[in-house]
Write a structure and sequence with these properties.
The chain is an alpha+beta fold. The chain has a single domain, classed as Outer membrane efflux proteins (OEP) (Up-down Bundle). Helices cover 69% and strands 10% of the residues. The protein contains eleven helices and six strands. Strands 2-3-5-6 form a four-stranded antiparallel β-sheet, with no helix packed on it. The protein has a two-stranded parallel sheet with strand order 1-4. Helix 3 runs antiparallel to helix 4, helix 4 runs antiparallel to helix 5 and helix 6 crosses helix 9. The chain is elongated, with a radius of gyration of 37 Å.
């Protein structure tokens, strides 16, 4: 019964799971639309926009209507500062309040910073989606080559086994051939697991469930173009860096906070208004010469601060310390951009050199296989030697593919640092016919 339940559960999971074939452009576009990190960044951005509205609220009149109805025996006294009334209304709003004005300006700057952070998150998500796409694509392609290796090693094992039975080879050779076959089969199984893990991780990065898998579609992609020079890339990155712009926004927000703390010494003016409809049974006619039922007051409340505690200067000192800290972080971020781009350009050159070596090595292996195939027709080499050279060629193909993937990853990292990765992937995919 338990086995049946397990089988039903597995069948249900398989029904819910889905393999989604996608090109690189489609994967990046989907990630930018529904990645959870981007969704959270958008929520933070919306939260800061609403904080601006909340900060501006005191400048809008706040009107409250109620009743202060009460029975008076003797002189009509006030209740909570107002005379007993059938209907009463109050309105309060800031007219001139510099500290609150700076709070509004700081909230706007924080909203701008949140927008910058959301834009920076797009580049991070695009790079992660592209990297996971490469991992899944590499595992699938190299796994296919490992499968070919397994077929070749199987042929070699059968050949060696026949030679051992005929006495033309030692049993050690059969053991060596069996080991090679087991090793390549283990590699193929490991690559299959890597492909499944990469496709699942890619699905999660694209906002799908853990039961789904995103499978790369075989396509021809042009290599992404790099900036004209390393210096141009550094200048462009420092100009458009979301991290630098975010720090600039934080510095501006803290300066507004500093001005707001200093503005606590300035006078303030508030709009105040009040309306009351008085009742005749509250003895007003007995104690006052004239009774008026409807009464309105409107005016301005002025406040001039004279004496301050240590809180004002402490808030200003805290804001100044934060400004100094963000300025140091800004300088470090600029240096890090230069350092990272220099390292990235060196990595691009290194991968390109390794790719050229892998290409030449592959050409040698392919030529050797062609020679062995020709000699096989002439009876000068054995089928075992041909299959072994075929395995060597497959290994060189794997090294060549790895080198090509390393170039793409290194170039994408440069574009990520310059803030143009997402746009470049879209453009490159369109040019390649996606």
């Amino acid at each position: 019964m338990r086995k049946l339940a397990v089988c039903l559960l597995a069948f249900t999971v398989l029904l819910r799971s889905e393999i989604r074939p996608m090109t690189l452009r489609q994967a990046v576009r989907t990630a930018l639309e529904q990645n959870p990190d981007i969704a959270l960044a958008r929520l933070d951005e919306e939260k800061t926009r609403q904080a601006v509205r909340a900060a501006r609220d005191p400048f809008y009149p706040r009107i409250a209507v109620g009743s202060g109805l009460a029975y008076s025996d003797g002189f009509p006294m006030s209740i909570e500062g107002s005379a007993p009334s059938v209907i009463q209304g109050q309105a309060v709003a800031y007219l001139f309040n510099r500290p609150q004005s700076y709070v509004v300006a700081e909230a706007r700057e924080n909203a701008r910073g949140a927008s910058i952070s959301a834009a920076g998150k797009r580049e991070e998500v695009a790079y992660r989606a592209a990297s996971l796409y490469l991992d899944a694509e590499r595992a699938a392609r190299i796994g296919a080559l490992a499968g070919k290796d397994a077929a070749s090693f199987q042929t070699v094992l059968e050949t060696v086994r026949a030679q051992v039975q005929e006495g033309r080879a030692l049993p050690l050779a059969e053991k060596q051939a069996a080991y090679n076959l087991a090793r390549v089969r283990a590699l193929a199984a490991s690559l299959e697991d890597d492909q499944a893990a990469s496709e699942t991780a890619l699905a999660l990065a694209l906002g799908f469930s853990a039961a789904d898998r995103v499978r790369p579609v075989e396509e021809q992609r042009a290599a992404p173009a790099l900036p004209e020079s390393e210096a141009a890339a550094i200048a462009s990155a420092q100009k458009s860096s979301n991290d630098l712009r975010r720090l600039e926004s934080q510095i501006a927000a803290k300066r507004l906070e500093l001005h707001g703390a200093q503005a606590d010494r300035l006078p303030r003016a508030d709009l105040v208004a009040q309306y009351g409809m008085l009742a005749r049974f509250n003895n007003y006619a007995e104690f006052f010469q004239k009774f008026q039922r409807n009464n309105v007051q409107i005016g301005v409340s002025l406040q001039l601060p004279l004496l301050f505690g240590p809180g004002v200067s402490a808030k200003a000192a805290q804001a100044a310390a934060d400004i100094s800290r963000f300025q140091i972080e800004y300088a470090n971020a600029r240096n890090k951009i230069s350092s990272d781009l220099q390292a990235s350009f060196r990595e691009v050159k290194k991968t390109e050199t390794a790719a050229e070596v892998a290409r030449l090595d592959l050409e040698v292996a392919r030529e050797q296989l062609s020679v062995n195939l020709a000699q096989l027709q002439e009876g000068r080499v054995t089928l075992r030697q041909v299959e072994e050279s075929r395995v060597i060629e497959n290994d060189k193909w794997i090294a060549f593919y790895d080198a090509q993937y390393n170039i793409q990853r290194a170039r994408w990292n440069v574009l990520r640092l310059t803030g143009t990765l997402a746009a470049t992937i879209q453009t490159v995919s369109e040019v390649s016919g996606d």
